[in-house]
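Is 2-phosphoglycolic acid placement plausible here? Inputs below.
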Amino acid sequence: MRQVIVAGNWKMNKTVSESVEFVKELQEGLGFDLKLQVLVFPPFTSLYSIGRIVDKSRIGFGAQNMYFEKAGAFTGEISADMIKSCGGEYVIVGHSERRHIFGESDEVIGRKVKSALESGLKPVVCIGEKLDEREAGKTEQVIERQFYKAFEYVQEDMIEDCVIAYEPVWAIGTGVNATPEQACEAHDFVRGLLEKKYNGGVAENFTILYGGSVKPGNCKELFEKNGVDGFLVGGASLKVVSFLEIIKIVNNMLV
Ligand code: PGA
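Reply from A.M.:
I modeled the complex. Tokens:
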């Protein structure tokens, strides 16, 4: 069974007190029969405080990034064990902002995925093409390269702890989401890669999220598509009202 996930990527937003207030409010709002996994990805500075108040049966959480080394002279970096020590269970790896603003390579992302898994964190691995790549007809080529590099060190016994978020870069923070058809096509392609590298069972059970300008007004039509197993939400996850609305819409679509 594929796990449905609605995750909020807060990016560089919210102080500790704002984060705690958000999680408390969200928790209160989740007092219904929840059939999916809700995740939040706060900034590093809020992880510890959230770990102390979160009800993990309702909300899981993790970090937006990590470094692949376990410890040492890596000024400014955070290890998987540090995230775990705050209670985090997940980590976003390879977000397009890490790739394109901070210059993270496919190789680095592969090492981060490996390190996260070895430390017992579940990586949410982001892949997706830029606008010029889509316009040049290179979408599948880019996704394929990112996929194979990200999972280079992941054997079949570890793959079930991973989640993929397909996030076309041109849709992130732009208000222009991929159409349900575009999302579906990319998700099918990724599932095909999972089948090729692993097997049909892995592909069938794997959770692939869509991310890029998801909001209450478009999540229904996106989630209706086969193969879209939930969302990684940026902007609309910053307010409890809109994040909760997305969660409720998706939850109501589950039997
Ligand atoms: P957005 O961001 O929903 O604001 O487009 C998504 C993401 O970057 O994960």
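Short version: The mean pLDDT is 97.
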